[in-house]
Amino acid sequence: MAEHLALLLTLPSHSSPIASPSKYSIPTKSMAATVFGTAVAVAAASSSSASSTSRFLSSATRATLSFSSPSPSPSLLSRSSSSSSFNFLRSSPLISHLFLNQGRPNSCGSNRRFSASSTPKCLASDPEQLKSAREDIKQLLKTTFCHPILVRLGWHDAGTYNKNIEEWPQRGGANGSLRFDVELGHGANAGLINALKLIEPIKKKYSNITYADLFQLASATAIEEAGGPKIPMKYGRVDVVGPEQCPEEGRLPDAGPPSPASHLRDVFYRMGLNDKEIVALSGAHTLGRARPERSGWGKPETKYTKDGPGAPGGQSWTVQWLKFDNSYFKDIKEKIDEELLVLPTDAVLFEDPSFKVYAEKYLQDQESFFKDYAEAHAKLSNLGAKFDPPEGIVLDASPKPAGEKFDAAKYSYGKRELSDSMKQKIRAEYEAFGGSPDKALPTNYFLNIILVIAVLAILTSLLGN
């Protein structure tokens, strides 16, 4: 065995995208003593007897020496001692964490307690930290008015998904890859470094949240805080670990392609989205501005943007560009205000026959727009993601509505119609006894008893006569 052993320990960093590896050169014997000594210390901390601890240390020391000292003919004792030592290492939660699970994201908080007989369930993100981070994002929105760029951050992380690629993370999607410089440098992501700077302090504060979850949490929260619909989100997305896992450039839509309708369908169909979802998601342009220095589109400033809020400048699609509503569809259809932006990919929503059906609908009915948008946003945020747990984490589980209390008097007078909930309750009870809409109960005991009594009464009457 070599006298020295070089260990490369790559420790995951929550505060920066890429952890810096560090090398340590440790003598073999010292390393063995350190490893076993740490494991022994963990076990010894739970022992209440000083003498038993002393005997345990002595035993472990002998096992260590037999493991690390070379011998031309190892004895059965040394082999069993070495084997038991390795088993002890595997069973130690501390050693297992340090040496067997390096580089894997872990959301088991340091404040969680668990017994030696049970293993804590580690999720991609900690649910309680997600809830706290959401409150911090709300405060960030109130002070910086960064709703539009946070929406864009979540969209562009998820929008690289390719449904034709099965492998993760090659398929792209919501996996946190947008935090790396190589992807931030894509032309479609110009300016998103500012969004990353805004939420990086939140990521450092809540280290047990993945970047993939934080991007989508920020995006959905921005929509809701701007007056938009509640997005039915789930969390637990796993992060990619390095820039080599970023998707290639060119998966995101352009603002001014030669054939806008075909371009939108090529990009969004590749993600698995349809025409209705394309139009609904386009409605999010009711928020934000285009800046010529970033996208090459829009004016440097307009009367609606020259004074902010937030950083002044740019050209907005709507007058109230921090309010989420359906005014986008009205403004891009009328095109009467030169101060408002209409991109080729906006105008085509009222030019393409299929897109126009939904654009006209959302122009007239904001409630329908909100409903379809919320569903499309949630679908987009899940594209390509790998969840841990597989079913995801829901922060705001809606409580089940209380069932209607049955009051016979309400239905025995005036022939009042049964409510839908009561009909469902009665049907559920009926089916519990084996009945169904297409099949009667196999035996109606009550009716049988009535028939038997009737037959007996008739026979008694006949015999009496």
TrEMBL record:
Residue ranges of domain Plant heme peroxidase family profile in the record: 150-404
Annotated Basic and acidic residues bias: 290-306
Transmembrane segments annotated in the record for this chain: 445-464
Enzyme class: oxidoreductase
Catalytic reaction annotation: L-ascorbate + H2O2 = L-dehydroascorbate + 2 H2O
Region described as Disordered: spans on this chain: 290-312
EC number assigned by the record: 1.11.1.11
Subcellular location: Plastid, Chloroplast
GO MF term (any one): metal ion binding
A GO BP entry: hydrogen peroxide catabolic process
Cofactor(s) needed: heme b
Keywords, comma-separated and alphabetical: Calcium, Chloroplast, Heme, Hydrogen peroxide, Iron, Membrane, Metal-binding, Oxidoreductase, Peroxidase, Plastid, Potassium, Transit peptide, Transmembrane, Transmembrane helix
GO CC terms: chloroplast
Domain of life: Eukaryota
PANTHER family, alphabetized: L-ASCORBATE PEROXIDASE S, CHLOROPLASTIC_MITOCHONDRIAL (PTHR31356:SF1), THYLAKOID LUMENAL 29 KDA PROTEIN, CHLOROPLASTIC-RELATED (PTHR31356)
Family statement: Belongs to the peroxidase family. Ascorbate peroxidase subfamily.
Role this protein plays: Plays a key role in hydrogen peroxide removal.
Protein name, UniProt field: L-ascorbate peroxidase
